[in-house]
Amino acid sequence: MEDKDFLLFIKKVKDYTSIDLSQYKEAQMKRRLTTLRMKKGYTTFASFFEAMAKDKELFYEFLDRMTINVSEFWRNPNRWEVLEQKFLPDMLRKSRKVKCWSAACSTGEEPYTLAMILAELNAQDSVVLATDIDEGALEKAKKAIYLDRSVRDVPAKYLQKYYRQENLTYHIADSLKKSIRFQKQNLLVDTFDTGFDLIVCRNVMIYFTEEAKHLLYHKFANALKPGGILFVGSTEQIFSPGQYGLESAETFFYRKTEV
């Protein structure tokens, strides 16, 4: 009975939002959503969905729980240093304006990190697209106000130049906010733009099934221009990247092979 209740919930969510929870790892997803449902006082997923459909705040909390909006600036700093010192300079030697995408950007720490690096490389006219399925997370990203714990890995020169501290919060400089275009997107369903020099999608794929990952790696590869770079998370090594038209360029960086 409990399994039927959850399966019907998955179907209703897909019909209502186009979000397909069956593409996420089931045990992990079910455990997380059961905790939220019980915390809110609902005995079944059927009653939880009915409440969610009427209460926007509850719906956003569901999305937030589902998408694990845990992020910080310069997450895994040594990988960002590789991007800053190797891959972006290589791209900028070919063109002073590069096209970048932060996929599943959560509350914005990742695309702002990228925008700061581009500004320091005098490439602030570059295009930075940032997308996420969670409208609540996108609204937080646009406000660009963060708790001090989010900035613990930010290099001092960036912290001084691109943030304004107010008590325990840090506010992103307006000049940087203008350089990013935020929009809602469902990675599994929506079509992607093309011609990207760089796609950053980190610490997201771990929540998807193998079939969903396979689909997304193909979509990301098709969205990159030849020679473009896909930057993934520290637990998301791509095995046999050649099947997607990619090759390993550095640990957690993959290059689209030239045709």
UniProtKB/TrEMBL annotation:
The keyword Acyltransferase does not apply. One of its GO terms (biological process) is methylation. Signal peptide: none annotated. It catalyses: L-glutamyl-[protein] + S-adenosyl-L-methionine = [protein]-L-glutamate 5-O-methyl ester + S-adenosyl-L-homocysteine. Keywords: Methyltransferase, S-adenosyl-L-methionine, Transferase. GO terms for molecular function: protein-glutamate O-methyltransferase activity. Its EC number is 2.1.1.80. Residues 1-259 form the CheR-type methyltransferase domain. This is protein-glutamate O-methyltransferase. It comes from Paenibacillus tyrfis.
